[in-house]
Write a structure and sequence with these properties.
- It contains eight helices and 19 strands.
- The protein is α+β, with helices and mostly antiparallel strands.
- Strand 10 and strand 11 form a beta hairpin.
């Protein structure tokens, strides 16, 4: 027999669980599917922590982060649990000036800390130059947030189904047929948030890359730790996330695409070269950390070519993909955006920037003979 729903959600990571919660709140008859178990380690949303920050070298993302912050507070009230811990945040390096300009354009309070003041305030950090500080940065408790969004969705009447694989999406005149390992479902729309698995069911240029992160124990547990972004060339950066949410230490890693993998096959083992690089960076920039990592793990980036998200609708299929290593902080906002798209409303984001059409008709670059 064919089941029917108003909306089917495919994938229950950060984006999908947020969309499922939003649909439930709006009273939309929804079936939400996860190919593994909620919180699994084959995606981009597991692990104890993610950075939350308003600071970006881009006013669009600053504006979105401001909106997301208010929705995080609402999510915390609804779930009855702390999910966003404010620590303050530092930006250093090449893009810090652009971050300051973007924060100013959104009237977000920020200021510069000279090296000496930074060391006094945060003795575990040794900046190479002055750093940009904004007090609203902090830590998202990742696993708890996803689990909380799923609980709220279920409480609102969304049917949550784990270990169900989506085999095909077939657009029709009156909606979409979703073929699954548990049987067919027909719906008016499907919100597809497959993370690193995007290419298996969507025609979008999303690449799965495995990233290694390492954790380092603070030498003095009483030292305060902010979030930290050390901007390098382009969008590459080193970052540090304070020890919260049961994390075994301060998380240190590089935001740079790692080896491309098939999300079904891996490999998923931490990269010894990446661990060594993180230890070297920690020894240079974070004297308050023991430079020997206490743990390392991997997650998958779901990268678009421009590292902007895909938030768009094509017929009855709504696509939420391409978190590109910085999407988690926006999760509650992206859930609202995807639900708006599924209901035919205009979402409060820059539509062209996150459209599917930006990838179409792009000519290959010329190469010398």
């Amino acid at each position: 027999m064919v089941e029917r729903a108003d909306v089917v959600v495919v994938g229950l990571g950060a984006m999908g669980s947020a969309a499922a919660r939003s649909l439930g709140r709006r009273g939309v008859r929804t079936i939400a599917l996860e190919r593994f178990r909620v919180g699994h380690e084959r995606g981009s949303s597991h692990g104890p922590t993610r950075i939350f920050r308003l600071s970006y070298p881009d006013p669009d993302y600053v504006r979105m982060a401001v909106l997301a912050r208010e929705l995080w507070k609402e999510l915390e009230r609804d779930v009855g649990e702390t999910l966003l811990i404010t620590t303050g945040g530092l930006d250093a390096g090449q893009a810090a000036e652009a971050c300051a300009d973007a924060l100013a354009s959104a009237d977000v309070h920020h200021r510069w800390l000279e090296q000496e003041e930074c060391r006094r305030r945060y003795p575990g950090i040794a900046p190479a130059d002055r750093v940009l500080f904004h007090e609203d940065a902090g830590v998202c408790l990742a696993e708890r947030a996803v689990a909380g969004q799923v609980r709220l969705a279920a409480a609102a009447g969304v049917e949550i189904r784990e270990e169900v694989d989506v085999l095909a999406l077939r657009p029709r005149d009156d909606g979409v047929a979703v073929d699954t390992s548990g049987g067919p479902i027909e719906a008016r729309a499907a919100i597809v948030t497959p993370g690193a698995w995007a290419k298996r069911i969507l025609d979008v240029p999303v690449t799965a890359a495995v990233q290694t992160v390492s954790y380092f124990r603070p030498r003095d547990p009483s030292d305060p730790w902010p979030t930290f972004i050390g901007w390098g060339e382009g969008s590459f950066a080193w970052y540090a996330v304070p020890q919260e949410g049961g994390a075994p230490g301060v998380k240190v890693a590089e935001h740079r695409p790692g080896p491309v993998v098939d999300p079904g096959d891996g490999p998923f083992d931490p990269d010894p070269v990446a661990i060594e690089a993180a230890a070297a960076y920690a020894a240079k920039r974070f004297p308050g950390l023991d430079p020997d990592p206490v743990a390392s793990e991997t997650c998958l980036y779901e990268l678009t070519p421009d590292e902007d998200f895909v938030l768009d609708r094509s017929g009855p299929i709504v696509v939420g993909a391409g978190g590109s290593g910085h999407g988690f902080k926006f999760a509650p906002l992206l859930g609202e955006v995807l639900t708006d798209l599924a209901q035919g409303r205009d979402p409060d984001v820059s539509a062209g920037r996150f459209s599917l059409s930006r990838f179409r008709g792009v000519a290959e670059p010329d190469h010398p003979a």
